[in-house]
Amino acid sequence: MPDFTLTAAPPLAGYDRSFGDIKLSAPKDLAIVSIALPLGGEDAAKKAIKTAFGIALPEVGMSATTKADAEAIMRLGIDQAFVLFASATPDAERQIAAKLKGAAYTTDQTDAWCALEISGPGARRALERICPIDLHPDAFAVGAIARTVMEHMGSIIARTDEDTYLLLSASSSAKSFLHAVELSAKNVT
Amino acid sequence: MIINHPLLGPRDVAEFIYLGDACLIDRPDWEADDAAEKFHEYGYIRDNIAGPMQELWYHEQGDRSWLVVTRDTITHEITDVEMARDVARTRGRSK
Amino acid sequence: MSQINRIKGGLIDRSKTLNFTFNGKSMQGHAGDTLASALLANGQVLVGRSFKYHRPRGILTAGSEEPNALVQLRNGAAQEPNTRATVTELFNGLAATSQNHRGSLEFDLMAMTDLVSPFLAAGFYYKTFMWPAAFWEKFYEPIIRNSAGLGRLSMQEDPDTYDKGFLHCDLLVIGAGPSGLSAALAAARSGARVILADEDFAPGGRLNSETLDVDGMAGADWAAQTVAELATMDNVRLMTRTTIYGAFDHGVYGALERCTDHLPGSGGKPRQVLWRIYSKRAVLAAGATERPIAFGNNDRPGIMLASAVRTYVNRFGVTPGQKVAVLTNNDDGWRTASDLAAKGVEIAAIIDTRDRPAVCDVPGARHVRSAGVVDTAGRKALKRITLTDGQMIDVDCLAVSGGWNPAVHLTCHQQGRPVWNEKISAFVPGKDLPPGMVVAGAASGALTLAAALDEGRKAADSQVKDLGFTPSKQAVPKAQDEAYEGAPKWHIPSGKKRAWVDFQNDVTVKDIKLSHREGFKSVEHLKRYTTTGMATDQGKTSNMSALAIMAECTGKSIPETGTTIFRPPYTPVPIGALAGRARGQDFRPYRLTPSHEWATKHGATFVEVGNWLRAQWFVKGNEKGWRDSVDREVLNTRNSVGICDVTTLGKIDIQGKDAAEFLNKVYANAFAKLAVGRVRYGIMLREDGICYDDGTTARMSENHFVMTTTTANAVLVFRRMEFARQCLYPDMDVHMISTTDAWAQFAVAGPNARKLLSKIVDADSQDMSNEGFPFMACGEVTVCGGTPGRLFRISFSGELAYEIAVPARYGNSLMEALMKAGEEFGACPYGTEALGVMRIEKGHAAGNELDGRTTAHMLGMGGMVSKKKDCIGKTLSQRPEMNREDAEKLVGFRPVDRSKKLIAGSHFINKGDEATMANDQGWMTSVAWSPSLDHSVGLGFIKSGDTRMGEIVRAVSPVHDTEMEVEIVSAHFIDPEGERLRA
């Protein structure tokens, strides 16, 4: 037994609250690993992704989920993607690196972000107050993602279901981000 | 203002950072005989363009790509948006 | 007082009676009333005092162009001045007061300014209050501010909240009058996403004010039916009480939605929302504004625009007077007479400035041809008018119609210039509209209902077709073309009587003539000299007349005279709405360090560093001042061990086959050959050769580096590196991602640092001996039984020091563990102050030294700029002037009298020289009280400093009016040989 043990305290752990027809909750144990496609090695990396996850790397601005929703891959840029999956242990990067077998560069981003899910019929109404992206169902299909800025905070928004959006923002400003989203929900309900 | 990102579509200017003339891509060769003079021009001399101008914009609150935006400085009309990396390559930059 | 002027009809809900007060007097109105219509219903004609002369004023209009009827709404902190009664929706319990008078509204003590009006003509303050200059601030301005002006602020914090938001549409339709409704309906039926916005609470525009039919039904009914259809459509967003106040670049429009202004309270919700609307196309259907005619004493309460009189009668069921005359230069004015007559209101006369037969038959009304009004009587309410031929008519209301001005405002917001239309004697939108905008209906100069409906439809069709939708096939709504011909008449010569042009800023015809006489003939000069059009109404009812009168003076045509153009906002936008949520704590986001919770519990005082809140020092026991805490933290660290959360330093994960070569480009010193498992200090230059940032970079593996930047430059360095990667070296395989927030990082410094960390770092993961993990080593470790971490042996304090990082979620817990493990050594946490003191004692440069003016040469790091490779800033850093022998060099300073405290910002002057700019030798950048040395220490730049050790110079601070003698010493006050950090 070590003399000291560390306990994890992610910034929004356990958060779960409803405002009228809007539900806000922080996903539990969401691990995030970034993937960078090596220059000149894009095809090999894409192949490795296909092999590792069973799905193709989605287009920029889209995400795709593996069978049984075990992992989601968000394509953020031409050479960058995030893999999101459930993992309670702090070895997310190693898990993904092992799957990709060196075909792409990986960086652990789990603790860089806080995650908040906003769902319900009023979700879009609340997001209108902070998100400059057009979230109309025709313009932002299920699976669409966008990296943008909300209340001065860099954020990623992903439409994961009909009325459900996953929001990511910097973990250090998690409290401010939560406040911004909460206030938006309060203001429209 | 709206910048029509080549990969992401129209995005609000609030997501971007402006740098300046896209001539900043054309960084001189440090080993050239006239390197000092060329770097002086590169660092300090700019055309003050009234009309279409190629500019560098950075999608900081987005995909972190640098873009070359052709914008009319009089009307703000944007006629072209390209990935700066592609432009840099066509201008002969490599490693 | 009962509603003595209430008549039959209108769109109000008589079943709902609303109580309100005006200047404390209880009155009643109905749901659907505006404050203005309710005041008129109650016979309250006098509603305010004018800006400059304190003239009694009534209601002029029935819309947002109102210049006169500005009132204060609500009480206490919620009190809001300068609100237009004409657009204020009545609610139960509304308390309104008139403004700009001393004493009561009826007996304003300041009304004597009207008697001295000859001295207050245009430009009077430029002439009268010129000398002496010193009087302006102390005497003239307070007097003017006090006597002129509008309402008063509550001087309390705004109790309401505001919000912002973003909307997107294919087509934005601005205005829900006949053309706007026609456009919105057609576009919506085509399937396009439509936003229809109108400033009124009841969509319909003039349809609600007129007695015209559409598709065989009353116009107001057609409007209601259309709105009902639009409300059922998913692709339509109907926004009432919403003003589109600005047209910005690329189809972006600003909108102000008043969410709760029509309610007694906001119910905790935002009172107003400022929307940014992204539109692909827009139809401007903003309608037109009727203009008055200037004549003698044309500002008396009871003199109103003819269209407004119609609005009050038809929409609100209120007659502004019992005996009404109409003054008009056009056919449209006649409809006021006929509509009023139809409601049983007595029409005394119709005075037409034109020589033409009656436009329609108005029972009981006298028709006076080729005539005008030259004077009026009735101080607080109109009693009588005098015509050009001298005859007098007793009336209590005069309806004036001078023709219509298309609401071109938004067409001008991107440099568009309106053009003159002779047919309607008005400016209409020019060709250079904001891209994507089409103008329809009265706003484009189409002044009849049939034309408005048709234009709205055509505008929508062309816009949606452009966007790839198939235009709706349904027929255009049908209406009659009503008569609207007119002949311009801007003002009626009225002898010496003052004739108002701009009611809100009290500008008269005489003022404009004076402006012309004194040479201020261009419209821009006219505007500034007379202040016409510069009030809160921005001259909606006055600009055109002022311009026309100036044209008359100069003998030029109106188009030759030109027009001023309009800027946003169309109507005033409260500062609160522009601020939105950005108030107090919500002004900007806060970033918290991973150990924030621990620090809060342990006496930390926090300081804002950018958006970060960092522990500045930790108060322990009875420590009274911050110095007590900081001195203790420094000594504790230097004597044993201290712990500091340094998570805020920027961390960038850099990977790629060319990562090492890339670092060679962005750092001035060489990085390519840095060994795996080692850290190197690096400096970055700007391309002009000035030092930009510094930090350390660790090589974790062959193609994997971890860079740290200063806290302040984390974002900027990342941005510059992406520029280098994409724009300068596009074929390098290098990838960057910020990991600043991902890792909690702590500096553990002091002679006991190794002992402490050996209890935390798992023994099997890292040999902690000096040989096994020497100065500038780095590595992946596990801590506290398997949690992954990173360890760096780097030192900012100059002590034996490490930085240890764990995933941020474990940060607070690691801080606790470190403190517990350090108990036996008396470990203490230290904040940014102690960090600063120690780095000054050690002579490390920081932001004060890297201030955007200093070079590597000045910092004593000129040798670090590699000669063998290119890097950003290399070539220009080699310029001779930046490498002068006598350049200011970074050195240390200590006061000759050790009891004195150095002052940062002091400038150095050689002994015996006068303290002038010419003799300036350099400046002090950072100072601190060194508890280790027990005297003040400083860092600074001084000419040839490196060769002047031991010299005494003077540190002069003209700001503090002090100077002291200081000695030039090495910047390394502590452990100059670096033995401690290698221990």
What key attributes describe this structure?
heterotrimer, A: 189 residues, alpha+beta, 6-stranded antiparallel beta sheet, 5-stranded antiparallel beta sheet, 11 strands, 22% helix, C: 983 residues, 7-stranded mixed beta sheet, 6-stranded mixed beta sheet, 21 helices, 21% helix
Overall description:
Chain A has 189 residues and is α+β, with helices and mostly antiparallel strands. Chain A has four helices and eleven strands; from the N terminus they run βββαβββαββαβββα. Chain A is globular, with a radius of gyration of 17 Å. The N and C termini of chain A lie far apart (51 Å). Chain B has 95 residues and is α+β, with helices and mostly antiparallel strands. Chain B is built from two helices and six strands, in the order βββαβββα. In chain B, the strands form two sheets. Chain B has a four-stranded antiparallel beta sheet with strand order 3-4-5-6. A two-stranded antiparallel sheet of chain B has the order 1-2. In chain B, a hairpin with a 3-residue loop joins strand 1 (2-5) and strand 2. The N and C termini of chain B lie far apart (34 Å). Chain C has 983 residues and is α+β, with helices and mostly antiparallel strands. Helix content of chain C is 21%, strand content 27%. Chain C contains 21 helices and 50 strands. In chain C, strands 8, 9, 12, 13, 14, 15 and 28 form a seven-stranded mixed beta sheet that branches. The model of chain C has no long low-confidence stretch (mean pLDDT 94). At the B-C interface, helix 1 and helix 2 of B face helix 17 and helix 21 of C.
Which class best fits the helix and strand makeup of chain C?
A: alpha+beta
Described by strand count, sense and barrel closure, the largest sheet of chain C is: 7 strands, mixed
Instruction: Report the major sheet of chain B.
Output: 4 strands, antiparallel
**Strand arrangement across the biggest beta sheet of chain B:** 3-4-5-6
Low-pLDDT residue spans of chain C? none
Q: Please identify the oligomeric state.
A: heterotrimer
